[in-house]
Design goal:
Layout (H helix, E strand, L loop, with lengths): L7 H104 L3 H70 L2
Length: 186
């Protein structure tokens, strides 16, 4: 609330009135006035603490909701990632088989002195190299997809950690508020 703006004269008069009241109230009146002022301050502080407790409670609810969204997103992403990883396994196995086949052909090519046989072996090696490149492209594509999902999971995990830190801070503040309010609620 806005307090009325007082002139210097009005301020001086109010101060003189206050001095007169203090001088005339006596010991009993002073204790009574101080007791009323203390109770008023306590009530104002209690109201502030209760308001802050409500705000912190809402903040904790918001954080819990955000965490739940990230948890559900993690489940969704994990359900996408698992089949991708499963489909990558046979590709890696096939790549290893093609590499072994390529290695065997290269050995055969080097051990052959007959030009016709060497040329036929070289053509086989080229075909196997082409197959290996196709398999590698497929593996890279799958690894990229998995990498994209992993990047989203990492980003969400980082956000989740931030929410946990905020939640801990808010919970500590709520505990402080409740401890302070317990003094007034005895």
């Amino acid at each position: 609330m806005d307090e009325p703006v007082l002139t210097d004269e009005e301020k001086a008069l109010a101060e003189k009135k206050k001095q007169a009241m203090l001088a005339m109230e006596g010991e009993e009146g002073r204790r009574h006035r101080e007791d009323l002022e203390r109770k008023k301050q306590e009530e104002e502080l209690k109201i502030k603490l209760e308001d802050e407790r409500t705000k912190v409670g809402h903040e904790l609810e918001r954080l819990a909701s955000e965490k739940e969204k990230l948890e559900l997103k993690w489940v969704e992403l994990n359900e996408i990632k698992a089949p991708l990883e499963k489909s990558l396994e046979p590709i890696v196995t096939k790549e290893a088989q093609v590499e072994k086949e390529e290695s065997d052909i290269e050995k055969k090519e080097h051990s052959t002195s007959d030009p016709v046989e060497r040329q036929a072996t070289e053509k086989m090696r080229w075909e196997v190299e082409d197959r290996r490149r196709l398999v590698e492209k497929e593996r890279w594509r799958m690894e990229d997809e998995i990498g994209k999902v992993n990047a989203i999971i990492k980003t969400n995990s980082d956000k989740y950690q931030e929410l946990l830190a905020e939640e801990e801070k808010s919970q500590k503040r709520l505990d402080e508020i409740n401890k302070n309010l317990s003094v007034y609620n005895k």
